[in-house]
From TrEMBL:
It comes from Branchiostoma lanceolatum. The keyword Cell inner membrane does not apply. Residues 422-461, 642-786 are annotated as: Disordered. GO terms for cellular component: cytoplasm; nucleus. This is Proline-, glutamic acid- and leucine-rich protein 1. It holds the Pfam family RIX1. Residues 18-182 form the Pre-rRNA-processing protein RIX1 N-terminal domain. Residues 683-696 have a biased composition (Low complexity). Residues 378-429, 517-585 form the PELP1 middle domain. Belongs to the RIX1/PELP1 family. The lineage of its organism: Eukaryota, Metazoa, Chordata, Cephalochordata, Leptocardii. The gene is PELP1.
Length: 805
């Protein structure tokens, strides 16, 4: 199908009205890539060769040849590449129309570039075609097709530098003669061609000749730049600085002596020379070279050292003209500084203070308060260039750039350039008229004058005014926060947030008519980028505006510009990932219910032991109810250690006459400990499982259990049997099944020793407070019961050694 389509298109071009179908046929061939197959392209190559031989069809053949060269296969180019270069050289040597010669030069540049990729074609072209082709292109200097000829010459010097060596002197003379050109395309080609002079000819052993040629050319360009500054600044420089300018220079034309032509030529020459040096330090070179960084920085300091404020008070014509050309000179110097930063990168850290000072100095003298709302401010192009170089400098060297010491000054400049100008109306009262004024003039001046600067109906408004400098300033501030945001003053974060958040809210309120220059989508996107940077960059002494940014980005998704709305969506997703992290962060509050309790065993491990103890206690209470008639006796615990005097004993009451005080039932209460299990307080004092250590009391509890008798292991009191508290009886009968506190029925046998009625609190592993009384020694029949109790308690009482102290 592709072959049939290619044949149909070629047949259409061969017809009588084929010239009118040429653009359509080329577009179809490019879209479908019809000429990649060798079978499809053979007929096209025959048609092209025939067309190039006739003057009437030569332009058509050149257009088709450009299409074939870009699409054909390697085999096709190897077969016909040399023939095409020879035919194109013949076309350039013929006297044809400028349009035909321009098209031939453009196609020749493409063919030469493709020929260098195939060694078999490159060898033949280098030895046969390039010398004659260079001589032909050098002769086109005074013709209209010279820019295209210079493009073809650039392609020959770049892809075949060796064969161009014999013509190096002529090429250098051509380049020097073009240094004063002001045509944009020709100036760009000149700046790209000049660095290739260092590679013309042979490189020698190890590329030594290449290195020497590059160094010599760099010194020539630097020397020429210093000569231009000598003629431009003359007596304006302070003379405090000394510069070591190279003694060699390019053979440039003589500078005119009369103004304004003299100032115009000097500023244009400085721009082109800076462009040549910029390409010289940026382009790839076949040998290793050493860039003279101190010499280039010295040149930049000299070029940027003179500003408009130094020339403001001088009324000479040359000073006024220089003031008009000064922004162009400074922009060229800043472009050279940007190329130097990109090429040398971190090697410029020793010169960080100089570079930062140059950028801040440029922003300082270009600031202006004379701007009118809706109109372009002075020096906007130069300020945009300074902000761009500042952004590159921050991205390359980061915190080592030294910009953090100038952060306050940079912030003030950015706020001045990014804040919309407010419409103002000034009222100016007239002073009383002088005596020589007539009565009519005094009457006319009576009252006030209204100076209107803000009414839209009375002035010209440009909605895109200052948009370039505003977007560049916002980008510079965003980069400043991202690079050194954590080490600058917190006041800078504060002022940045106070600037960007109200401005975005104001923009949301007036989406149909945003403040100038925020009708430009790039400026609005720069505001959102700055807000996201303020959220992401954390400062130890100033919080990020995350809560405000979420709402602002949500509203920003409704922006009518697609790039702005899509960026707001991405920024909102970033904020959501901060607010709702995928995993708990270290800074989140600790939830007590989620943390494991170290000092308390799980309930399912403790419940069986407690249930067994409860069952034994119930059976003992039922057994003792027939003997003493007590369902529950008021416990009066005291351990063996307390009975020896470790704690103060409470006085016991008589067995037969003393009664339990009424207040005792009130002091018996149950409290819930927030951090541990339930605790029963018998002495009216409050105890917590967190405030006391349980190891010592647990050991005492174990010793009491080992030394107790079967019947005396229960809780006992010295109170009369009929002096049982109602509160204690209710607590014993209503005890839940899952409580952590177990009360054991007290029992008194006949003839057994009665223990003192002092009490103490004993802790278990789980933080449970226990009450126990130390009784006398029991009989041998009680060993079995003691062993059972000890086995049950071993599940939750830790093994510990009693403290000897």
């Amino acid at each position: 199908m592709a072959a049939h389509m290619a044949n149909v298109l070629l047949t259409s071009l061969s017809e009588k009205e084929g010239k009118s179908l040429l653009p359509w046929a080329i577009e179809a061939a490019n879209e479908h890539q019809l000429l990649q197959s060798e079978q499809n392209v053979q007929d096209w190559v025959s048609h092209i060769n025939t067309s190039l031989g006739a003057a009437k069809t030569r332009l058509e053949g050149l257009c088709l040849l450009g299409t074939v060269v870009r699409q054909c296969s390697a085999g096709t180019f190897i077969q016909h590449g040399t023939t095409w270069i020879r035919m194109l050289t013949q076309v350039l040597q013929a006297y044809d129309s400028p349009l035909t010669l321009q098209m031939a030069s453009h196609v020749l540049a493409c063919v030469v570039q493709q020929a260098a990729q195939y060694p078999e074609v490159a060898r033949e072209v280098a030895s046969t075609n390039i010398p004659a082709l260079v001589q032909c292109l050098l002769g086109a200097q005074d013709h209209q097709w010279f820019p295209s000829a210079l493009e073809a010459l650039h392609s020959c010097m770049k892809n075949f530098p060796g064969p161009c060596g014999p013509s190096k002197g002529k090429i250098e003379s051509l380049v020097c003669g073009l240094m004063d050109t002001n045509q944009p395309r020709l100036s760009q080609l000149l700046q790209q061609t000049c660095p290739l002079l260092a590679g013309c000819g042979g490189g020698g052993a190890g590329g030594v000749k290449y290195t020497e040629a590059w160094t010599h050319l760099c010194d020539q360009v630097l020397g020429s730049l210093h000569q231009v500054l000598d003629d431009t600044y003359q007596d304006i420089e302070t003379g405090l600085q000394t510069y070591s300018a190279p003694q060699v220079s390019l053979r440039l034309k003589t500078v005119p002596e009369s103004d304004p032509e003299r100032t115009f030529v000097l500023s244009t020459r400085f721009h082109n020379l800076c462009g040549c040096l910029q390409q010289l330090v940026s382009q790839d070179f076949p040998s290793v070279v050493r860039i003279p960084v101190p010499d280039i920085l010295a040149l930049l300091c000299r070029a940027l050292g003179v500003n408009a404020k130094m020339l403001f008070g001088k009324a000479a014509m040359e000073h006024v003209l220089l003031m008009s050309a000064l922004p162009k000179i400074h922009c060229s110097a800043l472009s050279l500084l940007e190329a130097l930063i990109i090429s040398c990168r971190s090697h410029l850290v020793p010169h960080a203070s100089v570079i930062s000072q140059l950028l801040v100095q440029t922003l300082g003298w270009t600031t202006s308060d004379e701007g009118v709302p809706g109109r372009q401010k002075p020096h906007s192009t130069l300020r945009s260039r300074a902000y761009t170089v500042l952004t590159v400098w921050l991205n390359v060297c980061g915190a080592a750039s030294g910009v953090d010491s100038h952060a306050d000054v940079i912030l003030q400049h950015v706020l001045k350039d990014a804040t919309p100008q407010a419409d103002t109306t000034k009222l100016k009262a007239n002073r009383p008229g002088s005596q020589d004024q007539s009565r009519r003039q005094k009457k006319k001046q009576r009252g006030v004058d209204v100076t209107d600067q803000g009414l839209t109906g009375h002035r010209k408004v440009d909605s895109q005014a200052n948009s370039d400098v505003c977007s560049a300033a916002l980008e510079a501030l965003k980069t400043l926060l991202e690079v050194v945001g954590s080490i600058i003053k917190p006041s800078i974060h504060k002022e940045t947030q106070e600037f960007v958040i109200p401005l975005l809210l104001k923009t949301h309120q007036n989406q149909s008519d945003p403040p100038i220059p925020y009708s430009c989508a790039r400026c609005r996107k720069g505001l959102y980028q700055l807000l996201l940077a303020a959220v992401l960059v954390l400062h130890p002494r100033w919080p990020p505006p995350t809560h405000c940014a979420v709402k602002i980005f949500s509203v920003g998704q409704q922006d009518y510009d697609l790039q702005v709305s899509s960026y707001c969506r991405e920024a909102l997703l970033t904020c959501m990932s901060i607010i709702h992290p995928r995993a708990p962060t270290l800074q989140s509050p600790v939830i007590i219910s989620d943390t494991p309790t170290i000092s308390k065993l799980p309930t399912n491990h403790m419940a069986p032991s407690f249930q067994m103890l409860r069952t034994n206690a119930s059976e003992t209470m039922l057994k003792n109810s027939s003997s003493n008639g007590n369902l529950f006796t008021v416990p009066s615990f005291k351990s063996a250690s307390q009975s020896e005097g470790m704690l103060k004993d409470n006085p016991s009451q008589s067995d037969s006459t003393a009664e339990v005080p009424e207040s005792f039932s009130k002091t018996l209460r149950r409290e819930e400990d927030m951090a541990g299990p339930s605790v029963i307080h018998l002495d009216g004092s409050s105890s917590s499982s967190e405030g006391q250590s349980s190891s010592e009391d647990s050991v005492e509890f174990l010793e009491d259990v080992k030394n107790s008798e079967p019947d005396s292991s229960t809780l006992e009191t010295g109170e009369p049997e009929d002096a049982v508290s109602n509160a204690g009886r209710e607590l014993a009968t209503d005890m839940p099944d899952n409580e952590d506190v177990v009360l054991i029925q007290g029992h008194i046998e006949e003839g057994s020793a009665e223990a003192p009625a002092d009490t103490t609190d004993l802790s278990t592993t789980a933080g449970v407070k226990r009450k126990h009384e130390s009784d006398g020694e029991g009989d041998d029949d009680n060993d079995i019961q003691n062993a059972d109790i000890q086995a049950m308690l071993a599940a939750f009482v830790p093994d510990s050694t009693p403290d000897e102290n």
